[in-house]
Amino acid sequence: MSLSLYNTMTRGKAAFSPRDAKNVRMYVCGPTVYDLAHIGNARPIIVFDVLFRLLRHVYGDAHVTYARNITDVDDKINARAVERFPELDPIAAIKKLTTETTSQFHADIAALGVLAPTIEPRATDHIAGMRALCDTLLAKGHAYVVENHVLFHVPSMADYGRLSGRSVDDMIAGARVDVAPYKRDAMDFVLWKPSAAGVPAWPSPCGIAVAGRPGWHIECSAMSEQHLGIEFDIHGGGIDLAFPHHENEVAQSRCAHGTATLASVWMHNGFLQVEGEKMSKSLGNFITINELLASKAFGGQPWHGRVLRLAMLTTHYRQPIDWTVDRLVQARATLIEFADLVQGATPAVAPLPEVVAALSDDLNTPSALSIIHGIAKSARRNPATAGELKAALQFLGLLGSETAADLDLGRAALDIDAAEIGRQIMARADARRARDFKASDRIRDELAAKGIQLKDTKNTGTGEIETTWEVKR
Questions:
Q1: What pTM was estimated for this model as a whole?
Q2: pLDDT, greater one: 72 or 172
Q3: Are 425 and 467 in contact (CB under 8 A)?
Q4: Strand partners, 27
Q5: Which positions ≥6 away from 428 have C-beta within 8 Å?
Q6: Helices 127-139 and 247-257: crossing angle, nearest 10°?
Q7: DSSP string computed for 245-294
Q8: Among 315, 325, 323, which Cα is nearest to 274's?
Q9: What is the DSSP string of 393-451?
């Protein structure tokens, strides 16, 4: 099976050839555990879980190493810990916050059908490696010490910026940081910084007497080096990390070791927006994975994790995705139908080659799902083929032991309040008259999520649009 992947570094798709077919290595940036993971964070988790499954299928489970890190030292963590647990000593508060947030992250992504990575390194367990990198970069002239900081000197690297493909002006704007007066160059970035009282601190590198803590970028360089080596096969993450985080990882690691690459292939998933708008707390559309799984925050009901996973995979990973109630409604209906078709079936030994081939073309999940729909069509006519459908669904992580009733999470228990539905229909009509079609569509989608289907009919006598509704379980 030929596996082709798009490489952000080369701006093209090419056949994947691991450095060692018996030790295929992949690193993906995981969460900074200061808050619950949002649905945008779920996208790389799901995307690279699919790639992990595919790599294990192609090369064998024992020959693939997947490292996904936990960032548990960060300024956001420090600030949130004091905010959440003011009664505790700051260090104790930080430990409590990171422990609780990591535990919730694991529970949330398990509900999405995500496999555990081979290794899940934590930043605080790799401080020695970060200090060693700082010392090496200073010795080789790629870093300097000023005001108890260690900074990477960007002009010391001739081809800095190749991964993101940005001009220097664009990179300065994209970095979104104040240019400290002690920097030699505006693009220089922090490798190590001093710690204030009540903030985690370790002995500093480079002869600095004041205790401190690592900068963000150096963490991943140290963790990937310890677990995957100074050069490895695949590095993944969201497109928002390409600059500055991944660009700076490349700079640190290559300059420290004099290598031509860090990862052979760089893969980035596209942005996620919610109902056509950028997700943000100020717009009130910031949605966590946990809220989708356990509350009525989106579409008026909770959603099963496998439904969220299918909804995510219907768009190619490199393309932007619009997270809508309608997308979830469609994914749920599809998955419920699939679950009905495979109930009681024994899965085939392996997924059909056509499904594997589609995924092997740069993780083309829409193409793979199209093939799966074809398998489902065959299973409707001939139940003996249901095992092939079940194998394909399990391969993509779309179905475990769940039944159709399990996937219909929260829906069957909803009470039908006719008066409330009537009020929502009137609100929708008002929105349409005001030409506020976004509000109109939102009300329609929220009702659809509850199994209420609206039907608009034009009254031939008055010319007015009349809306009726029915329950579609």
A1: 0.87
A2: 72
A3: yes
A4: 67, 235
A5: 439, 440, 443, 444, 454, 467
A6: 70
A7: IIHHHHHHHHHHHT-S-SEEEEEEEPPEEETTEE--TTTT---BHHHHHH
A8: 323
A9: HHHTTS-SS--HHHHTTTTTT----HHHHHHHHHHHHHHHHTT-HHHHHHHHHHHHHTT
